[in-house]
Amino acid sequence: MSARLTVWAPGGFPEVRPGDDLATLVGDVLAADAAASGDAPAEGDVVVVTSKVVSKAEGRVVLAADRERAITDETVRVVATRERPGGLPPLRIVENRLGLVMAAAGVDASNTPEGTVLLLPEDPDASARALRAALRSRFGLDRLGVVLTDTAGRPWRDGLVDIAIGAAGVAVVDDLRGGFDAHGRPISVTVTAVVDEVAAASELVRGKTAGRPVAVVRGVGRFVLAGDGPSGDGPGARTLVRPSADDLFREGSAEAYARGLADAQGLADGAESGRG
Amino acid sequence: MSARLTVWAPGGFPEVRPGDDLATLVGDVLAADAAASGDAPAEGDVVVVTSKVVSKAEGRVVLAADRERAITDETVRVVATRERPGGLPPLRIVENRLGLVMAAAGVDASNTPEGTVLLLPEDPDASARALRAALRSRFGLDRLGVVLTDTAGRPWRDGLVDIAIGAAGVAVVDDLRGGFDAHGRPISVTVTAVVDEVAAASELVRGKTAGRPVAVVRGVGRFVLAGDGPSGDGPGARTLVRPSADDLFREGSAEAYARGLADAQGLADGAESGRG
């Protein structure tokens, strides 16, 4: 018997404006799609929403002229920088308020009204929880997941992939530690980032230009949680952030190298002045 | 109208042994599944296969006792290391022969016969091309893609995701540079790593323990190529590897820092000896 995953992304999503009730917009589009296609959200489904429309609804819009300052404001820690040609300000890869390491702190200029840029939602896990509560109620469902996505680069590989920056009602990871492989040997290190794979799968359907910010993912019900409150909402996508202290790549190579040079210089100066 | 993606993974895949004709095994399982479910591979589909069964068929098996030496042999460049407790050898994150930066060079001990570990395929893009040719012929299809996957960790985020390490008949990236967003502004930096998202989507269906090494992805036909030869096979997954010279994270933070310290010491020693 086949295992099966289905992802669909309804069209017809309206432009989102600050103050819009996103749960109502998402619910309306899903309901209209269900009326047309018969595919209503069901128990065990995950509703995936790009964080861009969450930011718009939450009014996380700033003037493009203030982009560099916005990046600075969103930055907790600069991880790496790269000079850019043509008088552009340097590319800054930073850890932002949400713990995410992203170029430009996740501040985004695509698909935003002219002259503006978008900040990431204030608290994407909280936004996901609110959306989950509203959609569970509207569609009369218990086991429903919500994932909020953003598009991110990564070291070592070209190209961007969508990741989960907010989650509610989903187990976030498939923790196989303690399980056994097909040869009966313990699986010791495989912890799959399920919500990141859900985000990636949904991007293949939503795309970047087609005005489809919402997708429904069916077939991952084993990761979808029931009930409300903390046990139903689950751990949230923030738990996927690796603490920088545990991260072998917490700092860009050039930055770390320069810090090593500078520290050696400081030690040498200290020794000099100690000698003097 | 909804955009739609469907992924399915037939069960019943046999254990793969060195020398097995993988294209026949994959074709047999897809044909049996089609007979049972009616879902035969069709124009525009992508067949995703975990590289693990490719390695097994290609005989890329070594004794577990030789694991550390195998990692060394697969290593082109050590990127970062971390000590491990309990007398275990250090974790080595390295760039391997394929350009992939991976823990243990991608040498894998899960789902392998007792006492053995698996190396990655010799040339996953070539393996994908061979599989594509065989499956196009068997199913009488023109536009068919093949993606070979592996499971990888990443900086900054916990949990593993599947990525594409081999590809044939797929455009690899969705290059939106030159396109326009919904506000008519040029999209300047969005290059989506389509095959990595296909790999991630397939993992949600294949899983790690269920004996489903093959999945079919339907709904990404706009990225699937027609014909044989280089234009039909496309660029291959190797093109997603970012050259280390362009990579801001080409070296672990601790390693880069230590190199800075050492270089400063070398400079100081040079200055000393120059002075003397």
UniProtKB/TrEMBL annotation, chains A, B:
It comes from Isoptericola hypogeus. This is Coenzyme F420:L-glutamate ligase-like domain-containing protein. InterPro entries: F420-0_g-glutamyl_ligase (IPR008225), F420-0_gamma-glut_ligase-dom (IPR002847). Keywords: GTP-binding, Ligase, Magnesium, Manganese, Metal-binding, Nucleotide-binding, Potassium. It comes from the Bacteria. The keyword Transferase does not apply. NCBIfam families: F420_cofE. SUPFAM superfamilies: CofE-like. Coiled coil: none annotated. Gene3D superfamilies: CofE-like, CofE-like domain. It holds the Pfam family F420_ligase. Residues 13-219 form the Coenzyme F420:L-glutamate ligase-like domain.
